[in-house]
Structure formats: C-alpha cells, structure tokens
Design a protein that fits this description.
By secondary structure, this protein is of the alpha+beta class. It has 9 helices and 18 strands. It has one domain (6-200, 229-239). The chain has helices at 21-30, 56-69, 93-98, 112-119, 150-156, 158-162, 203-215, 241-251, 255-264, and strands spanning 6-9, 14-19, 32-34, 36-37, 51-52, 70-75, 78-81, 85-87, 106-111, 128-132, 134-136, 141-145, 164-166, 175-180, 185-187, 192-197, 225-231, 234-239.
Length: 269
C-alpha cells in the first residue's frame, strides 16, 4: 500500500538533480543534462515488466526495444511529512549518499517550468512524459497484456512500465522525464535556481568549478552556489559565494574586473 505520512509537492516548482563532482563540471560546462538508458538503473525490478505475457519472446522483444529506444532522467521533489514539516528536495540524506558520492558531489536545483519551456521545441513529435513515480510493495498488474507493436505497448502502458517502483525507493520522491527516440540531452540554460555543493565537495574539483564560474562570467555567479550543512539529521544550505570569490582572487589578476562586472549586474561583493 502507498505511504500516507510522506507526500511530495510542487509548491515552488523546483526539482532537484543529484550528481557527482565530475558530472557537475560537465553539466555546467555545456548547461545540459544527459539522459540515461534503461541499462543503468538501480532498481533491479526495472529490468522487467510486471504483467501478463502471451509468450516469452514478446517479453524479450519489448524489453530490448526499451533498452534501445527509451531514455530518462530523474529528479527529486519537495516533500511534506505528516502534513507539518515542509522540506526542500535537497534534504534527502539518502540521495546525497547514493547519487552525490557521499556528500562530495552536488544537487542542482532547477525550475521545472523553465526546463519544460526551453526543451519543448526539441520534443515536437517525440513521445515524452514528465511525471512522478508511484511506489508500491507489489508491481505486478495482471490486467496489462502485451501486443505485437512494441511502441504502442509502451505508449499505452508507460505509467506501469516506467513510473512504478518498489516502496523501498519511496524516500527518493522521484520525478522522471521519459522519451522514446528523443534527444540525448536536455538543456538547462537559464533553468538553474542554485546549486548545492556537498559539505565534502571534492577539493580538487572545487578549484575547477571556480575557474568554470569565472570563465563563464554571468552564466552562473558565485551567488548561485550554496554549501550543504547538516543539523539534527536534516540538511540545510549556507551561502558559499564568499568562498568562491576568495578562490577567484587567487587564480586570476582579472578578479577585480570580474567583481566590478558582478556589481554592475546587482550583486553585492
């Protein structure tokens, strides 16, 4: 049965993508998120489709079609516990451990509406969905039966195939973008609200990150980054702009020019 004490909400239109330090640098260097195939998922049940099959060949054929044609990317969401405690989607200790390399990575906070708007033009005519995953202790559905057309089967039953996971994954609060024969990347240009760096963010990668911020000028500024802090089992964030600025001063004689550029655009240093 579904849990009722923990509810996921879109109250501020933000979604959260956890990643490693290496991947963060790649993402920010081209402002894109790479979609994954279904060959690299963490839930073992997702390699199977829990329904009635007319024969084993159909199962193999449709599973192969999914692996060759379907892509996805996952995000976490804000949540409410017992209708009292409103928590931001970066407050997922399990996600920090599992997807952000034990707090050495980061969480990119994205405006979902802007993400959809900027990518819509590249998805015309492409089957795609952006929905929340449902969690249950039983995934089998005997009412679903296969048919001869792989794509038709997937488009008809996409929620059962891609948007159901075992309840053990409930804490992820996952929201997925899914597509069939879609693009390899989604653009996140002008979609980032801020980036949360893990409290143990890789020190060598931090220097590379600061250089990237400096070289890209106003694409992202030091003010777009905060640092993860833990207290009483919860995750908070604190401003990291000063630390980034101090690092910029040590890597370039042009830092004063950069600061002046920030000030002209309304940033206080």
């Amino acid at each position: 049965m579904y849990r009722t004490d923990l509810n996921y909400t879109k109250d501020n239109n933000l979604i959260y993508h956890f990643t490693t330090a290496d991947s963060l640098l790649k993402i920010l260097s081209n402002m894109t998120l790479k979609l994954s195939t279904f060959a690299n998922l963490n839930d073992l049940n997702e390699t199977d489709i829990n329904c009635n099959w007319s024969n084993s060949f159909n199962h193999i054929r449709i599973k192969k079609y999914i692996q060759e044609h379907c892509k996805l990317i996952s995000f976490s969401q804000n949540y409410i516990y017992n209708e009292v405690f409103h928590e931001a989607g970066y407050n997922h200790p399990r996600m920090w451990a599992q997807y952000a390399d034990n707090n050495t990575g980061a969480c990119i906070v994205i405006d979902e509406k802007k993400l959809k708007e900027i990518n819509d033009k590249n998805l015309i005519g492409i089957f795609n969905k952006f929905e929340s995953v449902k969690y249950d202790h039983l995934l089998y559905d005997k009412s679903i039966k296969d048919n001869a057309d792989e794509r038709n089967f997937i488009e008809t039953y996409y929620r059962h195939i891609f948007y159901k996971k075992h309840i053990d994954w409930y804490q992820e609060g996952e929201k997925r973008f899914l597509c069939i024969d879609g693009p390899e990347y989604l653009s996140i240009k002008d979609c980032i609200e801020f980036v949360v760096l893990g409290m143990n963010f890789n020190k060598e990668k931090y220097f590379d990150l600061v250089k990237l911020i400096f070289m890209n000028r106003l694409e992202l500024t030091p003010h777009d980054f905060v640092k993860q802090m833990n207290s009483d089992g919860r995750i908070f964030v604190g401003d990291d702009a000063h630390s980034i600025y101090e690092t910029i001063k040590n890597i370039s004689i042009l830092s004063n020019e950069y600061v002046e550029l920030l000030r002209k655009n309304g940033y206080a240093i």
